[in-house]
Specification:
Length: about 210
């Protein structure tokens, strides 16, 4: 069963906030779920699988998804206590989604538990490596991508070059997004993997709100 043929599910849990953030709880939770959804529904996973020579599996999907989740976390954790809470809820939404996708694919409970444990270790190792890479030169970032997204199996330097360029331009793009807008909407419109017009990276869309400010 091809993983990309599976349906997308994501559930919500309730977190306890300090009194300072109680008034923002609902908005932040909705925005966090939206931001996570942007990481799974606005990415062309088939293109990543093709261009990076990744198999169409749950693990490959997770490796690409966690890269985009990490980029969101880097950006939103700059937004103080609200941003830190939103980060926690984005990650929670990711694990809920991964577990649901595993169930849909028919993975039994024992193997699902083992897979979740392995993915958890992979995720936090990737976060550490990507954090180091984004603050360093392209060589360090390429090494982090090789270890994590490519699972140490990339032999084509052009694929690594493509992904380094992709991460750099995405971070440039989302860094330019307004923090308050991100906390209210969670909307991220990703740049394509292959950019037709590099200058368009600098154009940041204006978010929209409904009557409730969401």
């Amino acid at each position: 069963l091809s993983f990309t043929s599976c349906l997308h599910y994501c559930s919500i849990c309730t977190w306890t906030l300090s009194p300072l953030l109680q008034g923002l709880r609902t908005k932040i939770k909705i925005a966090a779920l939206r931001m996570y959804t942007c990481c799974v529904e606005r990415i062309n996973y088939d293109e990543f699988f093709e261009k990076c020579s990744l198999p169409d599996t749950l693990n490959s999907w997770f490796l690409v998804a966690q890269l985009h989740v990490w980029m969101c976390l880097v950006r939103i954790r700059q937004e103080g206590r609200e941003g830190k809470y939103m980060c926690r809820y984005i990650v929670h939404s990711m694990w809920e989604d991964v577990e649901q996708r595993s169930k849909i694919m028919g993975i039994d409970a024992i193997h699902r538990k083992e897979s979740m444990r392995a993915m958890t270790e992979t995720f936090y190792a990737a976060i550490f490596g990507y954090d180091e890479g984004i603050l360093s030169d392209d060589g360090v970032l390429a090494a982090a991508l090789w270890r994590n997204m490519f699972n140490r199996q990339c032999e084509d330097p052009k694929q690594l070059e493509l992904m380094v360029e992709y991460v750099r331009k995405q971070m440039q793009f989302i860094d330019a997004l307004d923090g308050e807008d991100l906390l209210l909407t969670g909307e991220v419109n990703w740049r394509p993997l292959l950019e037709d017009n590099a200058q368009s990276i600098l154009k940041v869309p204006t978010p929209t709100y409904n009557d409730a400010g969401l």
